[in-house]
Design goal:
heterodimer; A: alpha/beta; Rossmann fold; seven-stranded mixed beta sheet; B: mainly alpha; ABC transporter involved in vitamin B12 uptake, BtuC; two-stranded antiparallel sheet; 4 strands; about 5% strand
Chain lengths: ~400, ~300
């Protein structure tokens, strides 16, 4: 009796071993990891990530799977919650890479999590695309880590090009917060880009203030006097209304242009009509979108009942990029290490990928060269797609 | 000739800018000086009392605008907002004195000074808990009209801020010089040991002083809301510190000095940024003040007896 039992167990184990080996050899499932902040500080970001990923999966399932090298594969999403914490994002990446055998990872969104999580992905040679992280360190010296959005400083030249093409101006003024990294960096890059285009001294006023200041009258008086045609101010939504109204009261009549830090719904609430008609650069704009972007927005709105924000759109593009890279890899061997490498190589070769947030080509660092969206605040106070501007 | 007029206009424009900025420093720094005169300590919660006053003004203005618009002309709404806000904010001042300073009247001066900081933090966090971190936008109490007079831009709001601040300070001057209460306050600042023996209780004069200071700060808050209409719970910190600098510069306990130094601070800040690169504004502006204090350690109108005392 006992012998039979032992034999059965041995037989089963052997069978299991073989079947799993056989399974591994001709794997028909592709797993994609999603590392998202479903709970914690920014659950709305996690929700957008998850919803976009589910929409993507729906499309794959409708097509009967993902076709790679003439063979259809089933796709499975492994969604892990990183609680908006750096440690949890690292843990989630480690788990997805070592236990779930994911082929690629989408996420984490914030730089706070994407920088440490990217290190894990790079160490285990697994492709990771962070849709939303703008910190240069996320992808720096990490061949396996990519991102779906542009870096902060990149907006400087983009805005300079936009102003030149749109208005034909040659003299610009800059007003920025010297005590805050983001505006300071962006102001410097803009100045360099503008002077490269229009010659030294074409930034006729380069004025600053410090965080928490509310009175910009002396700087703005200087700017008005300098004869500048346009004012660039890469400030946050709580300072922009003060700058705009004070500038107007001091006789400024030209356009005022900003960067993606303007892109908060609160801006219009605080600024009101004074901000109507102004421009800023951003990742994406929902109102007035066209083509594939509009199709995505409509579908998202219909399914989930609200307009998708930039995180959802960038996640969608990142998943499309991953999909394209997997398909371009040609043939999956079933040996996960080898396949991951093939996907990574394919991703670096992608050129002019046509995403809903713009055309992308990766640099050697894994940062996309893409066009920024120029948003106009229309007369209803909505952020309207005005055009795209390329570096 | 042409460039001369232009630079003249440029200077005139900056004088107007400086008058507006200076008005806020002046009205707020008076609150520091008044309390110092009576209690010989600086009320470090004053910047946050200004902040609470602004939020009260915001609430009152929102309600009045919703209820009264169309019924009475805008100037009446404005006046009503000022009066009601002043009244309510005075009680904040009384509260700070009674709850914060009175229990510590016999305590070392340092403890009382720290109390002010604590109360300030309590006010900030209370507003934060009640209203959240979201910025609020102060509703305009009058339509902004921009006048363009010979190359100078001035809005009716700017003119109003400058005029109302001056009127407030004149009213305060009259109150202190002409009324019995004012006389008691002056007497208290001259000798706070002898005056209570004459039957003037410090427990009445001190809260009165706080109330007047808070009332003034709340009007400054309403005006501030018209000029810089974005409210956040920490808005009083920086402004409070700068007004404190003005109070020291003007001479401790001197109301006239605080007002003048407030305007001077506004002029220094604006003109330093006009002449030098604006990145160096605070560095140069406060170096100038440091130099002034080196040569006039008692400030402009500091009295011998008020500086001998602690803190």
């Amino acid at each position: 009796m006992r012998k039979i039992a032992v034999l059965t167990v041995v037989a089963f184990s052997v069978a299991m071993l073989f079947s799993s080996l056989a399974f591994a050899a001709r794997k028909t499932i592709i797993k994609i990891g999603i590392n998202a902040p479903l709970t914690g500080d920014i659950p709305k970001v996690g929700e957008g990530t998850k919803y976009a990923a589910q929409m993507w999966l729906e499309d794959i399932e409708k097509a009967g799977g993902l076709e790679v090298g003439g063979k259809k594969y089933d796709v499975e999403l492994v969604i892990e919650d990183n609680e908006s914490k750096a440690e949890s994002a690292v843990k989630a990446n480690t788990k997805m890479i070592s236990q779930d055998d994911v082929l690629a990872i989408i996420g984490p969104q914030s730089s706070k999590q994407a920088v440490p999580a990217g290190e894990v992905a790079n160490k285990y040679k697994t492709v990771m695309i962070s849709p939303w992280s703008t910190n240069p360190d996320t992808t720096l010296d990490r061949p396996y880590v990519f991102r779906g959005c542009f870096l902060d400083p990149f907006q400087g030249p983009v805005v300079a090009n936009f102003i030149t093409d749109e208005f034909g101006f040659t003299k610009a003024a800059v007003l920025y917060d010297v005590a805050s990294d983001y505006p300071k960096g962006l102001a410097e890059v803009f100045k360099d880009a503008w002077e490269a285009k229009h010659g030294a001294g074409s930034v006729v006023a380069y004025e600053s203030f410090t965080t928490k200041d509310t009175d910009f009258s002396s700087q703005l008086t200087k700017i008005v006097k300098s004869g500048a045609q346009v004012l660039f101010t890469p400030q946050y939504y709580n300072e922009v209304p003060l700058i705009v109204s004070q500038a107007k009261n001091l006789g400024w009549e030209g356009p005022i242009v900003g960067s993606d830090s303007w892109g908060s719904a609160e801006l219009v609430e605080l600024c009101g009509e004074a901000c109507y008609g102004l421009f800023f650069s951003s990742h994406y704009a929902a109102a007035g979108a066209k083509g594939a972007t509009k199709a995505f927005i409509d579908r998202y709105e219909k399914t989930y009942g609200y307009t998708p924000d930039d995180v959802a759109a960038l996640t969608w593009d990142s998943l499309q990029l991953a999909q394209q890279a997997i398909q371009d890899a040609g043939k999956l061997t079933g040996r996960i290490e080898k396949d991951r490498e093939a996907v990574r190589d394919a991703l670096t070769r992608i050129e002019d990928f046509d995403g809903i947030t713009g055309k992308m080509t990766f640099t050697e660092e894994g940062d996309p060269i893409k066009c920024a969206v120029i948003v106009k605040i229309n007369n209803q106070g909505e952020f309207e797609f005005y055009g795209s501007s390329c570096p | 000739m042409e460039p001369l007029i232009e630079s003249f206009n440029y200077i005139l424009q900056n004088i107007i800018n400086a008058l507006q900025r200076g008005s806020f420093y002046a009205v707020i720094s008076i609150g520091y000086s008044m309390v110092y005169g009576v209690l010989m300590l600086f009320n470090f919660a004053h910047g946050d009392i200004f902040m609470v006053g602004t939020y009260i003004g915001f609430g009152i203005a929102t309600v009045f605008l919703a209820v009264l618009t169309g019924l009475v002309p805008p100037p009446v709404i404005f006046l009503a907002t000022v009066v009601v806000t002043m009244f309510l904010a005075s009680w904040i001042g009384v509260f700070v004195e009674v709850a914060g300073y009175r229990p510590l009247r016999q305590a070392p001066r340092a403890s009382a000074a720290i109390t002010g900081l604590m109360i300030g933090i309590i006010f900030e966090t209370t507003i934060l808990i009640m209203l959240g971190a979201k910025r609020l936008s102060f509703p305009p109490l009058m339509e902004t009209v921009n006048y363009h007079i010979g190359g100078i831009y001035i809005t009716n709001v700017k003119a109003m801020i400058i005029i109302i601040s001056l009127l407030l300070m004149l009213a305060l001057h009259a109150f202190i010089q002409k009324t019995k209460w004012g006389m008691a306050m002056r007497a208290m600042s001259y000798d706070f040991l002898a005056v209570p023996l004459m039957g003037v209780s410090i427990n009445i004069i001190a809260p009165l002083t706080f109330a007047v200071g808070a009332g003034l700060a709340s009007v400054a808050g309403i005006l501030y809301g018209q000029a810089y209409p974005i409210l956040d719970p920490y808005m009083g910190v920086l402004l409070g510190w700068k007004a404190f600098v003005a109070a020291i510069l003007g001479g401790r306990g001197s109301i006239k000095g605080a007002a003048l130094a407030g305007y001077l601070l506004g002029f220094i800040e604006i003109f330093v940024a006009t002449i030098f690169p604006s990145t160096l504004r605070d560095f140069i502006a406060y170096s100038i003040i440091l130099i002034i204090l080196t040569f006039r350690p008692r400030g402009f109108f500091g009295m011998e007896h008020s500086t001998k005392l602690r803190l």
